[in-house]
Amino acid sequence: MTSVLGHLLSHDFDARYKAWKSCDPSQLFEASIDDFVEESKQPLAENIQAQARYCQILYIWTDCDREGENIGTEIRSVAVKRNPSLSQPGKTVRARFSNIERAHIINAAGNPIPLDEAQSNAVQSRIELDLRIGASFTRNLTLSVQPMLRQHFGNDDQGVISYGSCQFPTLGFVVERYLRVRNFVPETFWTIKIMHEKDRVKVNFRWARNHLFDRMVVVVLFERCLAAKTARVTKVQTKPTSKWKPLPLTTVELQKCGSMFLRLDSARVMQVAEGLYQKGWISYPRTETDQFDRDMDLRALVQKQTQGGDWAQFAQGLVDGGFSQPRSGRNNDKAHPPIHPVNFVNPTQLNQDEQRVHEFVVRRFLACCSEDARGSKTDISILFGGETFSTTGLTVLERNYLDVYKYDRWTSSQELPRFQEGEVFEPTEALMSEGQTSPPGYLTEPELIALMDANGIGTDATMAEHISKIKERQYVETRARARGAQQIGDDGAASDGETAVVAPAAGRGRGRGRARGRGGRGGGGAEGRGATNGMQEFIPTTLGVALVEGYENMGFEISLTKPFLRKEMELKMKAICEGRKTKAEVVHETIEQYRDVYVRTQQRLDTLRAAVRKYCFGENG
Amino acid sequence: MPSQRLLTATPATANGNAAEIGASVSAFLTAKGVPPTQAWLHTFLSGVRLTTPVIALQQTALFQIRKADLQTSITRSPSNLLPPGTTDPATKEKHVCGPITVQVLDIEDIGRSRWSQVEALEALERGETTKGREVIRVVPEESGPDSTAVADEAKSSGPHKLLLQDASGAQAYAMELLPLKGVGVQMSVGGKLVLRDFTVARGLILLEPRNVELLGGKVEAWDKKWREERKQRLKAKAGIGGER
């Protein structure tokens, strides 16, 4: 029994095409690709070959996801070099398993299945496409733009300007939000507020129309309310309500929560989680599954957490009868269960970051196994001058999961006085007031991850990588979000209307004059506004904006900075897995699609250069 | 020869019949709220085959008059025009019986900021709403049966404010007090409405389903121009700060 460390094989172009200036980048669409074992993995390959020599059967136990299937075929190809008999039918098999409980594993061991060639092919095609497209576009982009950057800033520091079919849409989201914030035009809106004091409680009623963007109309409606003098209660409804406990934990969710609650960026969260996994404290942290298998013994896992930590008592409560089956989400990658704690560990044995991540995983798991929080909600509506206003009161009756999951909030509102349907009263106060719309904030990491997830960019395993990549390539920078900066959407009724002030993008180099002057305010932006709340937001650099604008202006129907292309590729991968398309078809179709884009890029390079001049050099277009 | 004439004679070319048809069409249109002028009727009749069954002619006439400018197609009388002083802001409230026929010159969604409407138009232009090219920008929060969807605001439509014009060319603003079926930014400019029994508050006509009949139709040239200039107008309004 032996193991590998991820992919065993690497792929690169034949030696003739390796050097950047060796050929026209477009030739890479057809250039031959070599599969080889990279130096650092040589010992693994040799080990496999040594073991393969004398065995009759090769039994693969890699993860049961697409990548795992592909790695399985890589192992087979390496083993077959030494023992060709393993390529015969039935000589290489694989186990299907999705968790590491004893019974499950024993069952899997007894029921081997053949490797899924279709899934492996899907991964093969993705690898090939990423290589061909990534390399050709990166070379083209760098060769076109790097010289002008170097020349302008007078140094050789400017590195590679890379293209990746996931990186670019990720950058696209950041730039797009940045431009939305910059171009935002605040607008005034008007609303009617009713306040009535009863039983010494001041009740605020919210207008059913929320707010309107036409002053005259609101004045007319307001006048009709005043003319009516009295309001009539049209609805009084009290009913039970609940706040659902969270879903089982996936990688994407962990990353989002890591940013929001733990002040750790996605790359760091994954790094810490991996460490906790290696040490045996939590389950495998790369998973899309948000449902627990019915036959998993969750109570036993809860039992383990009664041994210590701040949550021990809560866990004991679950064991003593409070346990409730977790909710099931809609995703199951069939390879791994949701992230959960597998053993008890005393927090003092962990370093600070590990403690925070571990605590989150435990609390989340215990919350999943609790009851929803329960409360009672009262809705009251009144009719005043033909207009409807309403108010709502919440009483939290049972906190349940909230007692262990301190990351969610749900509190009782002030208690509402009793109203009766049909009751008529003269409102204490009726006012017309105005406010202004304010721009959305720049993208935070949880928002970016959510966007990538919703638009099919990257997988749970790679999202953090794409984000790291665009930081590494200096397409974006992060800065702490100032406290008080708007986090609500652009129609949020904030009458102080604090907007994020953004200096126009100028090509100010920093220090050594690289093409990465900030797209937003200069470095000290967060200072002077008081303490930050720790959330990081993404600001594109001038180079990032130039690239996105440059490509957008080329006027493609299928822009490289939008998610469609990548999403299509993902759909085609799926088609290969399901046998609807072959690898050859998909590679061919996709190459043709990108070749077309490549040709157009070549023809319109000036547009890209103009964008670079505008944003990076600060020249007016 | 007499027999041939009998066979080939198209009865409707006889004057009497044209007049009858004309009267029948006119009565039909008048009942619908769009009494045609003699000139319009004449033009209409000369463009159709009078052998067509009268019912079909009536429908065709309605169809065509709905596409015409009211100012040149229907007869005016004090009873089908907006009363004088309708738009006077000094009058707190006024009741009008009607029926008054008007055409729509402009439609605005006043429940959403103009800027968000501009952004939505631009997303449409970039093809982000076409199937397969959608870019999902708002990710819904899920926290239970009470989760309030903030995202909804960006999509909600209305209420709408309309600019209406009667057959004499007089204009007045109107707003949807309650949602009206068929009224929205997708409705056609030049479409006809018949208003009955309505209230005007400070010069603003208040519309409700019970006092509006949507006849439909559109004036092609106006509608086209309106759609082309919409984004410009929204931007201009947003820039001024949205005040009327």
Integer count of domains of chain B: 3
**CATH homologous superfamily of the largest domain in chain B, by name?**
RecQ-mediated genome instability protein Rmi1, C-terminal domain
Roughly what percent helix of chain A?
A: 25-40%
**Terminal residue distance of chain B:** 73 Å
Low-confidence stretches of chain A: 485-532
| Helix-strand category of chain B | alpha+beta
Q: What gyration radius of chain B follows from the Cα positions, in whole Å?
A: 23 Å
The CATH architecture of the largest domain in chain B can be given as Beta Barrel
* Quaternary organization: heterodimer
Trace the largest sheet of chain A across and list its strands: 10-7-8-9-6-5-11
The general outline of chain A is: globular
The greatest interface between two protein chains, and residues involved on each side, is: A-B, 44 and 42 residues
User: Could you tell me the mean pLDDT of chain B?
Assistant: 82
Order of helices and strands of chain B: HHHHHEEHHEEEEEEH
The overall average pLDDT of chain A, rounded, is: 86
How big a fraction of the residues of chain B is strand?
15-25%
Descriptive keywords:
heterodimer; A: 621 residues; alpha+beta; seven-stranded antiparallel sheet; two-stranded antiparallel ribbon; B: alpha+beta; OB fold (Dihydrolipoamide Acetyltransferase, E2P); eight-stranded mixed sheet; 8 helices; 8 strands; 18% strand; disordered N terminus; RecQ-mediated genome instability protein 1 (chain B); RMI1_N (chain B); RMI1_N_C_sf (chain B); RMI1_OB (chain B)
What does this structure look like?
The complex is a heterodimer of chains A (621) and B (244). Chain A has 621 residues and is of the alpha+beta class. Chain A contains 18 helices and 13 strands. In chain A, a hairpin with a 2-residue loop joins β8 and β9. Chain A has a seven-stranded antiparallel beta sheet, covered by helices on one side. Chain A has helices spanning 15-18, 42-52, 66-82, 102-110, 117-153, 167-183, 215-228, 251-261, 266-278, 298-304, 312-322, 352-368, 445-454, 463-472, 542-553, 564-577, 583-603, 605-616, and strands spanning 10-13, 33-36, 58-60, 92-94, 188-198, 201-207, 231-243, 373-384, 387-398, 424-425, 429-436, 476-482, 532-540. The model of chain A is unreliable at 485-532 (pLDDT under 50). Chain A starts with 9 loop residues before the first strand and ends in a 5-residue tail after the last helix. The longest helix of chain A has 37 residues, at 117-153. In chain A, α3 packs across α5 (117-153), α5 (117-153) packs parallel to α17 (583-603) and α8 (251-261) crosses α9. Chain A is globular. With 244 residues, chain B is of the alpha+beta class. Chain B folds into three domains: 2-65, no CATH class; 73-112 and 157-244, Beta Barrel (OB fold (Dihydrolipoamide Acetyltransferase, E2P)), CATH 2.40.50.770; 113-155, no CATH class. Helix content of chain B is 35%, strand content 18%. Chain B is built from eight helices and eight strands; from the N terminus they run αααααββααββββββα. Chain B has helices at residues 2-8, 15-32, 38-46, 54-65, 70-73, 114-125, 152-155, 220-239, and strands at 93-96, 100-109, 160-166, 171-176, 192-195, 198-201, 204-207, 212-216. Chain B has an eight-stranded mixed beta sheet with strand order 1-6-7-4-3-2-5-8, with no helix packed on it. In chain B, β3 (160-166) and β4 form a beta hairpin. In chain B, α6 packs across α8. The termini of chain B are far apart. Chain A: It comes from Friedmanniomyces endolithicus. Chain A: Residues 486-534 are annotated as: Disordered. Chain A: This is DNA topoisomerase. Chain A: It holds the Pfam family Toprim. Chain A: InterPro entries: Topo_IA, Topo_IA_2, Topo_IA_AS, Topo_IA_cen, Topo_IA_cen_sub1, Topo_IA_cen_sub2, Topo_IA_cen_sub3, Topo_IA_core_domain. Chain B: Belongs to the RMI1 family.
